[in-house]
Design a protein that fits this description.
single chain; 247 residues; alpha/beta; six-stranded mixed beta sheet; four-stranded antiparallel beta sheet; 34% helix
């Protein structure tokens, strides 16, 4: 069976210093995958390199059996909120409409049906009442819901989210997790950079545990073993016993 996502021997450097090295893993279709590890582990760097947003030293990324350049339109990406310009003069509906552009093409404007689809995506994340609001007027959780709606509007097969739960309210977090599980159940594959180990079991089926090098990947219960967490976090955690697999 063809893997949804395969990464082999990925290496990435910044200013001559290798920050991600020797990363290889693969996952089947229809999985909700968390990328976890300590601060500075290279989680966001890994995701950006996989998407071709930053150069890699070497390595291959295969998505649905094809190289990245052939499947870009099938991939939706939600970047970290602090990397976005919230003063940009665009409203919520137009932000979500941007998700339809990859398949429309640069020289075609959205039609009535595209705007209706964008509103449906806003309704799904509970943000339809804010459609005319400027994006910068929203709270952090509301902004993140809108960017998830933009990703949904793209009708992608694979979703990449970089730290989507940072700085948002618990209601928005629960909404986002619910929707991610729904689209997983529809056969989509989702990769999420995440920092809160205490919720890893609840949110994800599979995990990538990283600290510049790959520590482990696979099912949550196989990755969240105390010895592997200790290796990744190198004594930074005081709650390893709570993460131990229960008998």
């Amino acid at each position: 069976m063809e893997k949804a996502l395969s990464v082999k021997d990925l290496h990435v450097s910044y200013y001559g210093k290798e920050v991600v090295r020797n990363i290889s893993f693969s996952f089947d279709t229809g999985k909700l995958i968390g990328v976890i590890g300590p601060n500075g582990a290279g989680k966001s760097t890994l995701m950006k390199a996989m998407l071709g947003l930053i150069p890699k030293d070497k390595g291959t990324v295969i998505i649905n059996g094809r190289p990245l350049k052939e499947v870009r339109k099938q991939i939706a990406y939600v970047p970290q909120r602090n990397n976005l310009d919230w003063d940009f003069p665009i409203n919520v509906l137009d932000t979500v409409l941007l998700g339809t552009y990859p398949k429309l093409g640069f020289f075609h404007r959205p039609k009535k049906e595209h705007k209706q689809w964008a509103m449906e995506c806003l309704q799904r994340v509970g943000m339809e009442a804010y459609s005319k609001k400027q994006i910068g007027e929203l709270s952090g959780g509301q902004q993140q819901r809108v960017f998830l709606a933009r990703a949904l509007a793209q009708k992608a097969d694979m979703f990449f989210l970089d730290e989507p739960f940072v700085g948002i309210d618990i209601g928005s977090e629960e909404t986002i997790v619910r929707i991610l599980k729904e689209i997983r159940d529809q056969g989509k594959t989702i990769l999420v950079v995440h920092h809160d180990l205490s919720k890893a079991r609840e949110y994800f089926q599979e995990l990538i545990l990283l600290n510049q090098e790959l520590i482990e990947f696979g099912k949550v219960e196989d990755v969240l073993q105390p010895e592997q967490i200790a290796k990744a976090y190198q004594g930074q955690l005081s709650f390893l016993k709570e993460l131990a697999v229960k008998p």
